[in-house]
Design a protein that fits this description.
Length: 366
């Protein structure tokens, strides 16, 4: 099997997804499985659906198209505001899109009318994280405009926290979103189907036993994939944090000094090299994986291996002793490392499952 490769354990993903779907359902919250971090791999998307997510969401229309073409049957939501240049594709391939700009929604309405379909809209509300969202004071007017547009169905409202600024979802801001849904319903005599509270950053709030009010949907990526909440990157109880493993191969392993010599300028990261006072010999091992393949700072090395450097094509570790050339080291990627590895054409993806009937490739030495 070639390296570098990302080994993807569908059985662990199935467990994580099934577990959270079940837990959140007791609060009346359904899960939209977010597929962007794994480039909407149809096999993984299928696993999420089989494990109980009620819909799929992605920030890129290309990924949604890919899943449609692969024959995935599910409600699909574009969770980033559509680009004006893509509205026709959005109407064609996504059932619902998240929106904050009335000009885009008007265009979605035009395209949907021409195509003879109805497109669903979730209006995103700004609640402090300062990424996408309509300011609270402008919501009623936007709802009013949206309700007048042909071939558009207002499905609900939503918010996204814990991303740009790391503002954490709590009882106060979630109650505010919930109250806003009530206010819109009362003002317009409608019932919003969806009140989408957020992403994996909402897990702790949702499972804390507080009244979750009108919030009836969360959009989950990281929690399902890596078993962690993104506020403090704590492992979520009872979930697997190792469903993804990044495997790289040793191409050099030598005893070398810990200190470089010669005149020091910037390194490959644009950092000025700072000389440590330490000067002793170490077992320096080079792996054939680099910044072009993943986020090297987002890799967790196995015990006894310490990451000490890297460049576009090399990862350098202190391995304690010399390692055989050609042997492999297995790393746990964080979200950033995972996304980059999924995106790199140089990283092979090996999807497998413990159910022998659905084995697609056998990981080496797990
Ligand atoms: C990426 C994204 C999510 C999923 O985030 P996770 O932290 O991976 O759960 C949810 N909502 C929106 C709008 C996103 O862009």
């Amino acid at each position: 099997m070639s390296a570098p490769r990302l080994e993807i354990d569908l059985t662990k993903l199935q467990h994580n997804t099934g577990y959270l779907v079940e837990k959140l359902s007791t609060s009346g919250i359904s899960v939209t499985g977010v597929t962007k971090a794994f480039l909407a791999s149809p096999e993984i998307a299928k696993t999420l659906i089989e494990s109980g997510v009620s819909a799929l969401g992605d920030s890129r229309i290309e990924n949604i198209e890919k899943m449609r073409h692969a024959g995935i049957v599910a409600s699909m939501t574009l969770i980033r505001s559509p680009m004006m240049s893509q509205v026709a594709r959005v109407v064609r391939y996504a059932d619902i899109s998240f929106n904050t700009e009335i000009d885009i929604i008007r265009n979605l309405s035009n395209c949907a009318s021409k195509a003879g379909v109805t497109h669903g809209i979730v209006l995103m509300v700004e609640m402090g994280d300062l990424r996408e969202g309509i300011m609270l004071g402008d919501i009623i007017e936007t709802v009013y405009d949206v309700l007048s547009l042909p071939n558009i169905k207002l499905c609900g409202i939503g918010t996204n926290l814990a991303c740009r600024s790391g503002v954490s979802p709590d009882e106060r801001n979630m109650a505010e979103l919930s109250d806003l849904a009530d206010a819109i319903d009362a003002r317009f005599g409608i019932t919003l189907d969806t009140v989408s509270g957020g992403n994996s950053g909402n897990i702790e709030w949702a499972l804390s036993g507080v009244n979750t009010g009108r919030i009836n949907e969360l959009r989950l990526g990281e929690a399902l994939l890596l078993g962690r909440e993104p506020l403090q990157r704590q492992a979520i109880d009872d979930l697997h944090t190792d469903a993804f493993t990044l495997v790289a191969e040793v191409i050099e392993s030598k005893i070398k000094p810990s200190r470089p010599w010669g005149k020091l300028e910037q390194n490959a990261f644009g950092e000025q090299s700072s000389l440590s006072e330490d000067d002793f010999d170490i077992a320096q091992t080079i792996l054939a994986i680099g910044l072009q393949d993943t986020d090297l700072t987002g890799l967790r090395a196995p015990t006894g291996i310490e990451i000490i450097g890297g460049s576009s094509d090399h990862l350098i570790v202190n391995s304690g002793s010399r390692l055989p050339i050609g042997c492999e080291i297995r790393f746990q990627p964080n979200y950033s490392a995972l996304v980059r590895a999924m995106t790199s054409p140089f990283v092979e993806k090996v999807v497998y499952s413990h159910d022998l009937n659905v084995e697609h490739g056998k990981p080496s030495d797990s």
